[in-house]
Amino acid sequence: MYNKSAGPSAHIVNIARELNKKQNLKVELLFNGFTMDVPNVNFKLLNLKGVQETVITADRGERADDVAIRGLSPVKYLKYIINSIRFAIRKRGKYDVIIERMWRLGGIYGLILKRKSKESSTAFILEENGPMKFDKNVRSPGNLVRYILHKLQRKYAEYIYKKADAIVVQTQPLKEFLADSFNLDARKIHVIPNGVDTEHFSPSDTQKAKESINLPTYMKVLMYVGSLDAFHDLSQTLDALTGMKAEDLLFVIIGDGVKREEILHRIKRDDMKNVIYLGAVPYETLPDYLNAADFCIAPYDIKDFEERRFVFSPLKILEYMACAKPVISQPLGQIKELVDTGGTGFLVCNVKRSYESLFRQMAKTDTHLLQAIGQRGRKRALKYKWSVQADKYIDLINGLVAP
pLDDT value at position 70? Predict the structure, then answer.
């Protein structure tokens, strides 16, 4: 389901946009459905939901990221499979390369289409952002069923991994995790990191940006933008801010998710006047909000990741850096490649005492020093432009498709 505020949707659309700019390459982009219009399209959109190829009608009934959080119902799963088969039959023999993003039923469309193609040379590339994790107690009958389904899905994923001609992951740790956990040949797994739209996410005057969204210009602003879920743990950040004076630091939260009500309850219960929740904001205006921050935070709870291994490429950190904002995060996986303390941001443990010390220090740090750190981050983010990542896909495709 396409939703432009979601990281996977941004990844897919931006890669497609850049690939379609390449000479002798024509891209068609297929989604199971659309919650909103796709901006700046330079390629053909296909809608598997209803098997449409022309006019794309947004399904406003789906709340942002709903499907990603809860999955599809059994009936919708069946419809997806039927539509995939119908679409594959219609499109047989048309594509030289199929790139599909992995999810619970990821790869099924690419596998069917490859088998239905008249030419056996069709290349099937599977993108994997990280296997699903099961974190529920199996004592209840319902969770026991879910656990069994999870195990079946893992077996299905292993089958799809081995059928794909190549697997694209965003980090080296994820490549190692897949090779080890699913007994895969590491040579078929290719690392292509997340990218960032450095034109959309670009720096502007911080004070003017604060004024434009009615934030006080005399206070340092710490900002979080992203999903409010178990992976992005804001509890320790809020704990650290509880003991700080309201005038020292203002924490602005932007986003939505399953933890929203819990966070709002916490803010109200503790009367946290130094925390503002703005909800979700449109992708088009998101840089206006980011530019109102003095520094940004990306906290993670490592307990909620598979085998406590951080294998992701955090898009939000790249967007922070592209807007020239110092980043506060943890020394995990690819984050250590993007953020270095004093260079482009600050790496600390996701615990209250670490944040307390850092926040007090940051509240007193000279604005010009923060700007210098942010500019170094912007320079590093430019190396991760979507066009750079698209070139890596081209190299992979050329290696798979015979001339």
Answer: 46
Taking 70 as the pLDDT cut, the residues of the chain under it are 1, 3-6, 49-73, 116-120, 131-139, 142, 246-247, 304, 306-307, 402-403
> In what helix (H) or strand (E) does residue 218 lie, and over which residues does it extend?
none
Examine the domain organization and report whether 237 and 251 are in the same domain: yes
Calpha distance 46→32 (Å, rounded) = 9
With tokens 């090779």, the residue in question is: 179
The CATH number assigned to the domain holding 318 equals 3.40.50.2000
Residue 290: how many other CB atoms lie within 10 Å: 25
pLDDT of residue 3: 67
Half-sphere exposure of 135 (CA within 13 A, CB side): 12
Q: Are residues 188 and 335 in the same domain?
A: no
Q: What is the C-alpha separation between 168 and 175, in angstroms, rounded?
A: 8
Among 122, 145, 150, smallest CA distance to 134 is for 150
What is the reported pLDDT for 62?
47
**How much is the pLDDT for 186?**
95
Contact 294, 221 (CB under 8 A): yes
Rounded (10°) angle between helices 7-19 and 386-400:
70
pTM (two decimals): 0.85
Domains: count for the chain = 2
- 3-state class of 3 per DSSP? coil
Structural domain contains residue 42: yes
Report the distance separating Cα 102 and Cα 151, nearest Å: 16
Instruction: For residues 241 and 299, state if they share a domain.
Output: yes
H-run or E-run covering 45: strand 44-47
DSSP characters over 343-394? TTEEE--SSHHHHHHHHHHHHHS-HHHHHHHHHHHHHHHGGGBHHHHHHHHH
Whole-number pLDDT of residue 86? 83
Q: Which domain holds residue 32?
A: 7-195+385-400
**Domain check: are 37 and 140 in the same one?**
yes
Amino acid 42: pLDDT: 83
